[in-house]
Amino acid sequence: MRTVDPTTIKDALMDTCGPGTSPRTRLVLERLVHHLHAFAKEVDLSHEEWRLGIDLLTRAGEITDRERNEFVLFSDVLGLSSLVDMLHSPKDATPSSVLGPFHILGAPEIPSGGDLIGDNEGDHVAVIGAIRSTDRSPVAGAVMEIWQTAANGLYSNQDTDQPEYNLRARLKVGEDGRFCFTTVRPAPYTVPTDGPVGTVLGAMDRHPWRPSHLHLIVEAPGHRSLVTELFPSDDPYLDEDAVYGVREALVTEYVPRTSTEDLPAELEARERLALPYFRVDFDISLARETEDQPREASRI
Question: Is the torsion defined by CA of 264, 266, 267, 269 positive or negative?
């Protein structure tokens, strides 16, 4: 490698891959290195700029923990998370959207009809829908994970004043694929700007706002898992999402209602809803595991 130069360094690196490197891993790494080196050449990357990039990544590692992932947030605000979602959302299924940096494991289980309102402030919301395959047949045994911000725009793992796992739950769907639950209307909020992501947003003169949304993960036997979000149609940041997570098919109507008579009987909080409340109807379509299966992932 004594004769390595800017035109040969990428090939020299890839030549170090041994025979145990999988074809997919080799392809992904080769393209990554190709574009990374091409970027450095195109912008004539200086030592100072290189050190700034390394510092941003170092700070992202220092701030990342079980309850906040700054690397995911970088991926979100640079559009990479949404690009990967859009590239791999199966046709005719509900589109995927960003996981976000504040998802945590271990949310408590509630039955379909369960309540997340508790002692939370904010407008009450009844969410009603069904989970179906892309052929419209109901999906039995699906599990839906739900999480959202409180009225102050913070998730429970950002706010020490909220109870642990506040506005988070795992809900098992009925045999007919139908589900319902009650909650409070989530608030728009800013992505965290106290770390290196905030530095980048400031350098780009960008705002950090996200429209309000409900996060969902839906899993069911024989179907591909779905990570997605539901957005109200009247949110002021719907067309200015800092992480590009909005999809037209994920925009929902929050319909004000003054009667609970037509709500499902299994809603635990049906008689306690503060009027007027909002009703959201949304059906979820899951792709079967055999539909548009992704290729084998690279192994690192």
Answer: positive
Tokens of 208: 């950090």
How many other β-carbons are positioned within 10 Å of the β-carbon of residue 50?
A: 11
Token pair in block for residue 268: 């635990």
Do 127 and 214 meet the contact criterion of CB atoms below 8 Å apart?
yes
Local confidence pLDDT in tens for the 300 residues of the chain: 688 999 999 999 999 999 999 999 999 999 999 999 999 999 999 999 999 999 999 999 999 998 789 999 999 999 999 999 999 999 899 999 999 888 999 999 999 999 999 999 999 999 999 999 999 999 998 999 999 999 999 999 999 999 999 999 999 998 899 999 999 999 999 999 999 999 999 999 999 999 999 999 999 999 999 999 999 999 999 999 999 999 999 999 999 999 999 999 999 999 999 999 999 999 999 999 975 555 566 666
Residue by residue, DSSP assigns 51-79 as HHHHHHHHHHHHH-BTTB-HHHHHHHHTT
Reported in sequence order, the residue ranges of 83-212 that DSSP labels E, i.e. its strands, are 109-111, 124-133, 143-147, 168-172, 178-184, 189-190, 209-210
Asked if residues 181 and 146 have their Cβ atoms less than 8 Å apart, the reply is yes
Give the whole-angstrom CA distance, residue 161 versus residue 148.
15
